[in-house]
Amino acid sequence: MTGEREVQTERDGKVGVITLDRPDKLNAYTPDMGDELVDAFRTFSADPEIGAILLTGNGRAFCAGADRAFLKGERGRNGLQIGEEHFIDGFVSELFAIETPIIAAVNGPAVGIGATMLLALDMRIASESASFGFPFAKLGLMPGMGSTVLLPAIVGLSRAKDILLSGAMLTSVEALEAGLVSRMCGDDELPETARELAHRVAGNDGSAMAASKRALAGQLGTALTNAIKDEQREAQNLAHRRVARLYSLTNDG
């Protein structure tokens, strides 16, 4: 998988496969990757021939978080800085509402946005070498993508607080025990295991699965919308405090 695109897609029968494809950068997230993810999810979810979507990473990482160059203000080919693209700015509600089942095959470290992007998906499988990092408290950042409501819904409120406030890095075993992932397998087994599961899911009745997803989501959709607004407000507050501290330090010097 080479080329300028940072997300590759393929059709494997009734399964749409989405692969993060910056292996030399551990699939670090950029605004261009975000735009391509939005396009890929929309394309597959609108295709009546696709019964399941599989998301994974190319190489030894799933997604090692946001690319540092872009955190420092670099703009993507789309002209956007991180946070201005729709994937971060509001796509999670649409992603959560997609009726086609979405499975994540986490093949290595999933850190920061690499971890939070997984929370809106339906099923998460981890390889033995996978890990899940939530370093936001250590970095002075606000976790986004609805994670403040999705993570508690997945692992429970007490465990979610432990993870977010401690800035935890979970091993695949710890993620399995917490319920963050539902299955774990050997590194070499992950691609085949994930595709077998995706094909099995894709063979089910699409209308029945969509109905189940809607019923399971329940009122969480409204809570998710509110959480996104709260996260964005708190992220702006944190950013303003960082600027104020920097200004104060500069003047004191």
Automatic annotation (TrEMBL):
It is found in: Peroxisome. Gene3D superfamilies: 2-enoyl-CoA Hydratase, Chain A, domain 1 (3.90.226.10). InterPro entries: ClpP/crotonase-like_dom_sf, ECH/Chromodomain_protein, Enoyl-CoA_hydra/iso. Signal peptide: none annotated. One of its GO terms (molecular function) is delta(3)-delta(2)-enoyl-CoA isomerase activity. Its main location: other. Keywords: Isomerase, Peroxisome. This is 2-(1,2-epoxy-1,2-dihydrophenyl)acetyl-CoA isomerase. It comes from Parasphingopyxis lamellibrachiae.
